[in-house]
Amino acid sequence: MKAARFSLVILVMYVLGMMAVAIPAAAQGSPNPNIDLQCSPSSILIDVSPGSSRIGFTGCTATNPTNYAEDVQITVQSDGLGYAAPGSLTVPPLGTIDFDVTVRGDLREAEGSHQLTVTATVTAANGVANPTPVPKTVAIIVVIEQFSRLQVEAEEPFSQMRPYIDHTYVFKVDNQGNALDKFKVEVTEASMTKLDEAGFQIQLPLVSTEIMAGDPPEKVRVLVRTPKNQGWTDKYFQLEFQATSDFSCRIEGQCNSEAQQITIYVRGIYLPGFQIIPTLSMLALAAAVGFRRFEDDLVEE
User: Fold this and answer.
1) Containing domain of residue 227, as a range?
2) pLDDT at residue 187 above 80?
3) 73 φ, ψ to 5°?
4) Could you tell me if 33 and 68 lie in one domain?
5) CB under 8 Å to 182, separation ≥6 — which residues?
6) What's the rounded mean pLDDT across residues 146-172?
7) pTM of the full predicted structure?
8) CA–CA dist 70, 92 (Å, integer)
């Protein structure tokens, strides 16, 4: 009889032991305060061009693998970027809480990358301070994307020229993007065709130039020779200079160009020394007035 009871006790203990093994570890809960942290995406892209939101974010999940209600502190290191995130969470036993970490770049901030870290630390479990906190950290890369932007300015928007003379026009190309860019420079095809038909000769020593964002504008020179035979009529001509961002054509999907038009006034009749004609006219007028006074004096005598 005693042997039978002993065997029954052994059998019950065996069954209970097998049931305990069969219970998932997650359902049992971790014996010590603990927290798991996951964030996605692990790379954040931010557009900082004028007009953009300059904002990016990652979504994080804090998972509590214990049977305790845990108070969790959230700490963010943003490498100089502005950010927004909850400072603390209360995660229920065997539960999860989702939260966002938002970062913001500065307007026209230089292209580059920043290291963002999000850390979760259990500060208390069931209202009792955690004596052995183990922080969990996730690293995220924040990429400030390059954008293209430029401005073109003419140093001499209007000029008056004689026929068949050489003149150099200067255009300033300013890289207003946020990284090094290469710019194609040219006189537009439509403008070049009209000037060529009118007898102009035009040369550009440069076809492209590299400019770092934030550097002073690059001066691009256009060499112009006016027509040899202008005729009797004064004429106005337009020269259109254009710069195009190489980065925009390769990466942004649409070429970003900026043009500046200048006006060239060419005199119709050229006489050597025509600049002094007004002076000679004034001298002739003065001589005529003096001669008239001399005649009046003779008459009075």
Assistant:
1) 150-275
2) yes
3) -90, 135
4) yes
5) 208, 209, 210, 245, 246, 247
6) 98
7) 0.75
8) 6
